[in-house]
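Researcher: Structure for this, please.
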Amino acid sequence: MTEHKKNSVHVLTIEGYTAEGAGVARLDGRVVFVPGTIAGERWEVRLLKVTKNAAWGKALRPLESSPERVGPDCPCSPRCGGCQFRHMSYQEELRAKHCRVSDALRRLGGVELDIPPVLGAETPLRYRNKVQFPVSPGPNGPAIGFYRARSHDVVDAEDCLLQPKAASALRRSVKTWMAQYHIPPYDERTGKGLLRHLYVRTNQAGEALCCLVINGKKLPRGRALIDLLQQAVPGLTGVVVNVNTRNTNVILGEETFTLWGRDFLEETLCGRTFRLSVPSFFQINRAQTERLYAAAVDFAGLTGRETVLDLYCGIGTISLCMAAGAGRVIGAEVVPQAVEDARENARRNGINHAEFFCGDAGQIAWKLSGEGVRPQVVCVDPPRKGLSPDVPPIIAGMGPERIVYVSCDPATLGRDVARFAALGYRTVRVQPVDLFPRTAHVETVVLLQRETA
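Model: Predicted structure, token format:
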């Protein structure tokens, strides 16, 4: 296929989407990935990279545009690469995500169910309650924004339509402070410079917590910075500094000190109150998380008597949501600080029938099984890589009636439900939920039922 070499131009019809949100076309049996396109469109496409079975292309000129195409509405898009679906209507985005979930479950999991529509957000705008801005030297002074796609080039972002206005206001104040007092941005190529990241948390009450990650032990002109930040966001509750002097891509270092105010926020979720410090894990989209967890609790089918085992429990969010309908809740999490947070969250919500253990999910489940613990419901909410191969047999060996699987990756979900099917657990309900509008991510809740002999 020499005519299909790099830089050749072809007219292609977009047939679907990749897991990353790029359009998919075909060229004489070879699959071609074309970002920024919509299913049903015809484009002139230049091939940028060609392999034996696939090619990557750049959309040059539309010949037939989709009625679902929308114009640019964000000052950063598409330069920052954070929003894979901003060029299409939200309904088309939800359709693409539904196709991705149903295809993964059918093809990888052998699941033949009519999957309901994705639960979309009331608004796909300004839903993020946590924003992490990398800081870097730029052509016109410090750049505070987001990494360009597949690079470490920082796009200076005046605003972003996924983040709250408070985050943009705090960013502007930090830029002003850096300019006024000649605060050097961190340069990861040289390891020099002070400010590495600006980290902002917000809550439903309109409060904000601001953290500056620095390459050093002290922050100069701290009082002037606090004054600027307070003027920008009246709901500011605290300013903290995190020290990270290592040559690493990990954002946070191990030492944090409070410059002013509190070092935490409080947030409510599903009627529970959670305390959030800078390193705490908490879902980015509060409103959609409530819908995700409501589906998980519904699938659990609790009557007030069940023992629930919640693996990968984090700071106990799902555990404490399950607690209202369960007789006993046991959570397991490998991160020690998260376990301490989970115990504290149980205490502050007056929940005394939930207990939390620190350790690997499989090891904790194995230990509990050896002690004779037989949960009626097991809930898992693993990271993107899904469950380790040893975990499904351990869970199945405990004999739960129901397994509620909360997934952030349809491919690993499909793989894992196939593993459970081989162990006697059939997928009976599915509900996709859009926690990250305008990006390629989609969450899914699945109910697996034990098949009786």
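Researcher: Any notable elements?
Model: DSSP finds nine helices and 22 strands in the chain. The CA atoms of residues 313 and 333 lie 5 Å apart.
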